[in-house]
Design a protein that fits this description.
DNA-binding transcription factor activity; DNA-binding; Rossmann fold; transcription; 7 strands; 5-stranded parallel beta sheet; single chain; Multidrug-efflux Transporter Regulator, Chain: A, Domain 2; 3 domains; Meth_synthase_dom; two-stranded antiparallel sheet; Methyltransferase, Methionine Synthase (B12-binding Domains), Chain A, domain 1; alpha/beta
């Protein structure tokens, strides 16, 4: 059974370590276990209990009241919350729990429930993007394994492809052409696939190239396909901190405006010019597509 430090638990449940310790001291909530050398740790059952407690606490239940409940009572209340698909806090916690267990059935049911209730766009905005950001940080810090991140990313990727296939593309008088790709060293396709979904929903044409496209290949495709816009997404920390250098390399091989989205756009100062438009969130993307 996997062991977690308090810093691991902090990242997984989104609650500060000093708060977890305060719960332990005041209410004896999930006291840590100890190794033979007296090192504190939590196991998978402890993590599950804490995930349930946080779900209730963030939905109006006082921690003092939760401390008086049995594990079964807590679990029953959380089960009721799980079907509240609009509750993004609960669903992010549920996805985290399913990911840690490699529970494909549970993960897929959460995705299906959220999308059925809210649609893919809102689900991506308030549930999946926050979830993926959390998972990415946990992966980088070693709290979870790379396999956990790949498990979640691939299930989300597959679901977006299903939603793209289900869309009936509207007919526009003047549809625009978009070239969608990820530059060298960028492998995370989720945001780019979602952009493809939004573009198809709006009736525009897309050429989707996927991940890690060499810069020289971009130039050849642009000459052949003649897009109106190019669209990339930057999320990988492996790209480094000089995002403007990467954008410069991409733009050197384009003769059309470049749209750039992804979590890194919000974290770094982007040097904007007439041919570069940062789209920092889902609303920015939707607003841009409504304006063209």
């Amino acid at each position: 059974m996997r062991k977690y430090s308090i810093s691991d638990i902090e990242g997984l449940i989104g609650i500060k370590a000093h708060t977890i310790r305060a719960w332990e001291v005041r209410y004896n909530i999930v006291p840590p276990r100890r190794t033979p050398t007296n090192i504190r740790y939590y196991d998978e059952d402890d993590l599950k209990s804490l995930l349930n407690i946080v779900a209730l606490n963030e939905n109006g239940y006082k921690i003092s009241k939760i401390a008086q409940m049995s594990k079964k009572n807590i679990a029953d209340l959380v089960t009721q919350l799980k079907t509240d698909w609009n509750n993004n806090t609960v669903q992010v916690l549920n996805l985290s729990d399913a990911t840690l267990k490699y529970d494909e059935i549970a993960f897929s049911e959460i995705l299906a429930g959220c999308i059925k209730e809210m649609g893919l766009t809102k689900t991506m905005d308030i549930v999946l993007f926050p979830f993926m950001k959390r998972i990415g940080m946990l992966w980088q810090t070693g709290t979870i394994d790379p396999s956990h991140e790949h498990f979640a990313s691939n299930l989300i990727r597959d679901r977006i492809i299903v939603e793209i296939d289900k869309l009936k593309k509207p007919i526009l008088k003047d549809p625009k052409r978009f070239l969608l790709f990820l530059p060298e060293a960028e492998m995370h396709e989720t945001g780019l696939l979602f952009a493809r979904y939004l573009l198809k929903r709006c009736g525009h044409d897309t050429l989707y190239l996927g991940q890690e496209i060499p810069y020289t290949d971009v130039k050849k495709v642009v000459e052949s396909y003649k897009p109106d816009y190019a669209f990339i997404v930057l999320t990988s920390l492996n790209l480094g901190k000089d995002i403007n250098k990467i954008l410069g390399k991409v733009m050197d091989n384009l003769n059309v405006p470049l749209l750039v989205a992804g979590s890194l756009i919000s974290e770094f100062d982007i040097l904007v010019d007439d041919h570069l438009k940062p789209l920092k969130n889902v609303c920015d993307i939707v607003d841009f597509l409504e304006e063209i």
